[in-house]
Amino acid sequence: PRDIQTFSAEDLSRIIEMAWEDRTPFEAIEKNFGTSEGAVIQIMRSQLKPSSFKHGAKGSAGGKPSTYIFA
């Protein structure tokens, strides 16, 4: 898995955007950026305000409630 610090600001933005979308599974993010689900969660926690992160966790991703993914 890639280190978070190796991503450009544009890549980080796109990773967050993809993770935020309900229709994008983590496998697609991993395929495009070489980063695991856990790394995506770390990216989101480090780049988003806590209230934004919690708001995003109320949606769903990959067919599972995101509260289980982002918690």
Describe this structure in words.
By secondary structure, the chain is mainly alpha-helical. The protein is 61% helix and 6% strand. It has helices spanning 9-20, 26-33, 37-47, 50-56, 66-70, and strands at 60-61, 64-65. The radius of gyration is 11 Å and the shape is globular.
End-to-end separation: 21 Å
What would you report as the Rg, rounded to the nearest angstrom? 11 Å
**Please, how many helices?**
5
Strand content: 5-15%
Biggest sheet: strands side by side, in what order? 1-2
**Spans where pLDDT lies below 50 across 5 or more residues:** 58-71
Mean pLDDT reading: 77
Shape: globular
Structural class by sheet pairing and helices: mainly alpha
Taken in chain order, the helices and strands follow as HHHHEEH
Largest sheet: 2 strands, antiparallel
Q: How many beta-strand elements? A: 2
Range of helix content: 55-70%
Question: What are the defining features of this structure?
Answer:
71 residues, mainly alpha, two-stranded antiparallel sheet, 5 helices, disordered C terminus
Give the secondary structure arrangement, pairings included.
Layout: H1 9-20, H2 26-33, H3 37-47, H4 50-56, E1 60-61, E2 64-65, H5 66-70
Antiparallel strand pairs: 1-2
Helix pairs in contact: 1-3
Nutshell version of this structure?
The chain is built from five helices and two strands; from the N terminus they run ααααββα. It is mainly α and 71 residues long.
